[in-house]
Amino acid sequence: MTLLSSPTVGKATKIKIFSFAGPHMRTFHITWFAFFLCFVAWFGVAPLMPVIREEFHLTKAQIGNIIISSVGITIFARLFIGWLCDRIGPRITYSIILILGSLPVMFIGLSNSYESFLLFRLAIGVIGASFVVTQFHTSLMFAPNVVGTANATTAGWGNMGGGATQIIMPLIFAGFIGLGYVDTAAWRYAMVVPGVLLFLMGIAYYKFTQDTPEGNIADLKKNDPAYRMKAAESKGAFWKACKDIRVWMLFLIYGACFGIEITIDNIAAIYYFDKFKLNLETAGLIAGLFGMMNIFARTLGGYFGDKAGIRYGLKGRVLFLAFALFMEGVALILFSQMTVLPIAIAAMLFFSLFVKMSEGATFSVVPFINKKAIGSVSGIVGAGGNVGAVLAGFLLKDESLTYSDALFIIGCTVMAVSFASFLVRFTKAHEAEAQQEMNESLGTVPTSSETPVPAIA
């Protein structure tokens, strides 16, 4: 008999944050922390850019190219990693990303010119594909009633690394300065720290997680050679995902939220450093507040998406997504026009709330698009985030525009993109299937005679 993971059986129906028991919550915590370290490594050089700019005599256009390189390669990496997750599972995939990704992070200090720095920044961008594995692994572990919240929380707490690095890296840099190193050496040694942590996390991920609630794919195949994951049971699932217009609408939507978040992660420190004449540590601290909002904001997006799904079905999830994205655009326009530091910070936090809620709301919809290709759909949609960042990067490198002008244009674009949400539609049969799974996960209808759905203790 072929084993297929059921839509609800074996998946956790509750998230108990302080629990590490069982594969569900253990995977939950290890996954978000791995993604957190990936973000610290991915954007570790961002708060140090004023120092690097001075050393390599970088122009605004060159900084724009560096921003584009850091997110551009991730587009292709996310597409490939989504396909790979469907084939070999998340455990081995994530371990490979963490271990191999640590190398350019540790060795970026070998850069001695703009060109070599650009190449290392390009290589580091592959780490951004870790997001796909994070969402894929969480989707395999949690039932429909909480999957949006689980996805949003693991991604949000991971994204929090983008804020933490704005605070942590200047402090590590200052620590090396305190040990007697000059600026040009201190930033290089500082980048070794996240690289080493990433390498160690790769070993830990392989040792302490498992692919599915039932176990690792390799072990399950030993017991049953015909085993295959529900997410990968359909041959050609990647191409089916590519032909679905809803996937490309979510691709566009995610570009308008996550793409803008990582753009701000890249420029926030230098934006405050230049516009408000702050020192490196203060600019990094303020920039860090933007990313630290992930501790709750993205979770709110997934939570409200789940609640809308419980009450109004899949259509409710999409409507909430449209609202959050529209408000993100409004908030970004406000932030772009602020010239007084305290008001600019408040506007940035308001914008940060909605950009992260939009991301959480997006991935409260993604698991329901095509259950036979969760990895592929996650990869395509996740790649959209990086396409958005690349397009924003081209705008930011334009010498004729100030950063404020560029952010205003981006805000207007985000508002327009929010209407693409209404093209993400589901058939009545799809809605009925999702409702049945939701009822099972909530325990409002009898489940099959198989093992009951576990509530994590």
TrEMBL record:
One of its GO terms (cellular component) is plasma membrane. The chain crosses the membrane at residues 30-51, 63-85, 92-111, 117-136, 157-181, 247-273, 285-305, 317-335, 341-366, 373-394, 406-426. Keywords: Cell membrane, Membrane, Nitrate assimilation, Transmembrane, Transmembrane helix, Transport. GO terms for molecular function: nitrate transmembrane transporter activity; nitrite transmembrane transporter activity. It comes from Adhaeribacter swui. Residues 27-428 form the Major facilitator superfamily (MFS) profile domain. CDD domains: MFS_NRT2_like. One of its GO terms (biological process) is nitrate assimilation. It comes from the Bacteria. It is found in: Cell membrane; Membrane. This is Nitrate/nitrite transporter. Belongs to the major facilitator superfamily. Nitrate/nitrite porter (TC 2.A.1.8) family.
